[in-house]
């Protein structure tokens, strides 16, 4: 994983993986496409999208409670981006079609994702991790959950 | 916790959180979007835990980056050698 940033995140007993994913995607996701490596793609997508919608409501609340015009404009952009973000648990066949793709490592091995952020949520051999991160642009991020 | 920074990317000795402006260590940092200067933004991991504050601080940061981008873009018009900025700032 030469040329990439690597971040390790630990979940304490109170934090859900989906909550942490949603908040990290909110902070970072504007960068570009995201690949999430998970052993349960459909379930992880459902729980993350639920947290994402909760976060969207929070952003909408913040927007309606501020009088700062610059902040209102930026939050409006963010809301539009959050509402338009596409999630998919369909195994990628070629280029990533959705903005956030959930799949197993073996699905990503078929076609290494060209993404800006990759979240690794379960353990698998490091050789596979090196292979699926091979197409990531230099200077982008891999987040590994312990 | 940030465990790896690409070796060929220059990083300052002291990392500053782009949201609150305070020093942040690699152990307590998290990676955000790329800034208009092309540097990865690092901010305190603790900000992710406070939803309302994160929303406001991130919005202010992104608005500032967008303002810098637009100012740089206007000054680059007609300059054939101008650097390309990150695409996310255009939308």
Which characteristics define this entry?
heterodimer, A: 146 residues, alpha/beta, 6-stranded parallel β-sheet, 5 helices, 45% helix, 16% strand, globular, B: 91 residues, alpha+beta, two-stranded antiparallel ribbon, flat
Structure, described:
The complex is a heterodimer of chains A (146) and B (91). Chain A is built from five helices and six strands; from the N terminus they run E-H-E-H-H-E-E-H-E-H-E. Chain A has helices spanning 17-28, 41-65, 69-84, 105-110, 126-132; strands at residues 5-9, 34-37, 87-88, 100-103, 117-120, 141-145. In chain A, strand 5 (117-120), helix 5 (126-132) and strand 6 form a beta-alpha-beta unit. By secondary structure, chain B is an alpha+beta fold. Chain B is built from one helix and three strands. Chain B has a two-stranded antiparallel ribbon with strand order 2-3. In chain B, a hairpin with a 5-residue loop joins strand 2 and strand 3 (40-44). The longest helix of chain B is centred in the last third of the chain and has 26 residues, at 51-76. The chains are: A alpha/beta (146), B alpha+beta (91). The interface between A and B is medium-sized, with 36 and 30 residues. Strand 1 of chain A pairs antiparallel with strand 1 of chain B.
Span between termini of chain B: 30 Å
Distance between the termini of chain A: 18 Å
The proportion of residues forming helix of chain B, as a percent range, comes to 25-40%
Order of adjacent strands in the largest pleated sheet of chain B = 2-3
For the secondary structure, the number of strands of chain B is 3
- β-strand number of chain A: 6
Low-confidence segments of chain B: 76-85
Mean of pLDDT of chain B:
78
Enumerate how many helices of chain B there are, as a single number.
1
Most strands sheet of chain B: 2 strands, antiparallel
Mean pLDDT of chain A: 92
Structural class of chain A, by secondary structure, is alpha/beta
Tell me the β content of chain A.
Answer: 15-25%
Which class do the helix and strand fractions of chain B yield? alpha+beta
Report the oligomer.
heterodimer
Strand-residue fraction of chain B?
Answer: 15-25%
SSE sequence of chain A, one letter per element: EHEHHEEHEHE
- Please describe the biggest sheet of chain A, giving its number of strands, its sense, and whether it closes into a barrel: 6 strands, parallel
Shape of chain B: flat
């Amino acid at each position: 994983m030469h040329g990439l940033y690597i971040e390790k995140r630990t979940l304490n007993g109170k934090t859900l993986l989906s909550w942490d994913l949603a908040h990290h995607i909110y902070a970072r996701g504007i960068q570009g496409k995201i690949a999430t490596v998970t052993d349960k793609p459909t379930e992880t997508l459902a729980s993350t999208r639920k947290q994402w919608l909760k976060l969207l409501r929070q952003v909408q609340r913040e927007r309606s409670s501020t009088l700062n015009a610059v902040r209102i404009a930026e939050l409006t952009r963010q809301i539009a981006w959050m509402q338009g973000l596409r999630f998919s648990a369909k195994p990628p066949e070629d280029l990533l079609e959705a903005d956030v793709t959930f799949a197993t490592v073996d699905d990503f091995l078929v076609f290494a994702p060209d993404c800006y952020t990759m979240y690794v949520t379960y353990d698998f051999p490091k050789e596979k991790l090196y292979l699926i991160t091979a197409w990531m642009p230099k200077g982008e991020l891999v987040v590994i959950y312990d | 916790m940030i465990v790896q920074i690409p070796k060929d990317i220059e990083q300052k000795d002291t990392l500053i959180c782009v949201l609150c402006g305070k020093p942040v260590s690699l152990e307590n940092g998290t990676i955000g979007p790329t800034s208009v200067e092309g540097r990865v933004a690092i901010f305190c991991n603790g900000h992710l835990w406070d939803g309302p504050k994160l929303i406001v601080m991130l919005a202010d940061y992104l608005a500032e980056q967008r303002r810098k981008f637009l100012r740089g873009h206007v000054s680059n018009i007609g300059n054939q050698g101008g650097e390309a900025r990150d695409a996310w700032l255009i939308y």
